[in-house]
Amino acid sequence: MKRRWLTITVCVTALSWQWAGAKGLPQAQTTQREMVVTANPLATAAGAKILKMGGSAADAMVAVQTVLGLVEPQSTGIGGGAFIVYFDSETGTTMTLDAREKAPAAATEGLFLDPDGNPLGFVTAWQSGLSVGVPGVPRMMEHMHRKYGRLPWPLLFVPGIVQSLKGFTLTRRTSDQVTGLLALNPSCEDRLTFRDPVAFNYFVDSEGTTCSAKPAGTKIVNRDYAQTLKLLAIQGTDAFYTGAMANDIASAVQNDLNIPGTMSPSDLAHYEVIEREPVCFVYRENNVCGMGPPSSGGLAVGQILGLMAHFDLSDKQPLDEDVVHWFSQAMRLAFADRNKYVADSDFVSVPSAGMLNKDYLTERAALIGPNDSGSVAPGVPPGKFDPYGPDFTAKTSGTSHVAIVDRYGNALSMTTTIESSFGNGVMVPGRGFLLNNELTDFSFIPTTPSGDPVANRVQANKRPRSSMSPAIVFDDRDRVALVTGSPGGSRIIGYTAQSIMNVLDFGLDPQQAINVPHYQNRNTTTTDLEIPIPNVTLDYDVDGLTTALENRGHIITLIEQTSGLSLIRVTGGQLIGGADQRRDGTIGGR
Ligand code: DON
């Protein structure tokens, strides 16, 4: 996308929202030159070191990604996939990189159906070889470095290699996630999750018939991972996609102890990342650029904000009943379209431009009334699409967001994933990293009961639909203004849209924007309000808001909403960072 100058002046409402910076809550941090925000302190430190050495945002990303794969193994790794939105200051262009996992060539639309044609249970599909997509992260790192790197490739692997050999302490969050997975096991011996002895011994303490997660604080050394990183550092990523490592990955998938998958060395050898045009739309005179299909993120965030643009928020506050109501209705409408139309656009026609068409959104916004609408039907956006049935697939856990701005003015927004906690639960023997289960993001059923094919059905070499929504927001003079994104399954869309609204409409700094409790409606029965977390999110009148919304027809559920937002605001020559304390977010740079 070429740089574009808008003529209208930016209009940011700087509300003096008295409790926005409430005491005891995490505070934003400011740097002058460069900044990196990730979900783990060791990954943040690695990125900050590379930036300090004069590395670009792309260089820092490689160090961050390789360290995250070690220290946040439940969320991300070289066995997974990612999407990047990148602003290159030299050319003034923004590109997106699709490093999404691919279905193997032998995959068919019945991948997740049992012999009777019924969909497999989620856990059965997840904890199997069927769910593993061909990883995109190694090629993504190499592509970004070749195009935008400034430091030598091998140097970027040093933090990951050193940390793997020196060891790191298991975080409370990782240990708790292992406990959560073990809870799904019928018994310690007959294991459904952590069926793989390599992963089991890495994450679990066992004695006889009892087993428990290694406790937080346990020191973990991963020599296999160090060796893998050394190979990538010296030989490049062909060492991953071809030869012995590719054989080991394919063999781990094909010999899965639960259900074998079909991924072959040839699937790995043929994997390619794809540069795609960003999906951009103007919101309150700012240009928001995100990831298009196969992610639904950019389009859904665009639709939500495009619908919110029909409401005057200038005298509102972030948790006002009206704001929560309008946002929940905007989410309903966006999810109805997302579920029906969005999938891998290399396989199906997605009416992307039509979904963000101004007149179409005006027509859709007219459906938002004073009361909850209940489940809404998809609209008919202008443009070409096939007669698809909806896919309601929605998932949780297993993803991380990275925001980086370097001293040269480049900005990187990356959401990176292995899908569910610890991916499919299998560590490639001798290689020290986990496999993903990204293919469970496909619809398990290929056709609806009425016989319509589902756009997001499994097809050979296709990429499953995602909700990941990495975004970069540009101000009215096309300068980078905000880098944002989050993990959280299909809730990512709401988290990201809300973060943009909190900054642009309510004038909150990035940390305040993150500290605001979430509210979501994914066009299901309920509107979900976040349970406040002491010292992490703002406290608010939960009962008052619940009653007010119930009076407007909402069915309210109060639940945890564990976003992992990483935000960088660029303004007045400074970088202001916000990191999500619902996970282990940290800010680095100087
Ligand atoms: O691509 C997607 O939409 C999902 N695989 C993301 C999963 C996720 O965010 C889990 N996060 N906590």
What does it look like?
This protein has 590 residues and is an alpha+beta fold. 30% of the residues lie in helices and 17% in strands. The protein is built from 18 helices and 21 strands. It has helices at residues 41-52, 57-71, 122-126, 137-148, 158-166, 172-182, 197-203, 223-235, 238-241, 243-254, 265-269, 297-308, 321-341, 352-355, 358-365, 492-504, 510-515, 542-550, and strands at residues 29-31, 35-38, 81-88, 93-99, 168-169, 204-207, 210-213, 219-220, 274-276, 279-283, 286-290, 399-405, 411-417, 471-474, 480-484, 519-520, 526-530, 555-559, 566-571, 574-579, 586-589. β19 and β20 (574-579) form a beta hairpin. α2 packs antiparallel against α4, α2 runs parallel beside α5 (158-166) and α12 (297-308) crosses α16. The radius of gyration is 22 Å and the shape is globular. 6-diazenyl-5-OXO-L-norleucine is lined by residues 395-399, 417, 419, 438, 441, 466-468, 487-489, 492. 6-diazenyl-5-OXO-L-norleucine binds at residues 395-399, 417, 419, 438, 441, 466-468, 487-489, 492.
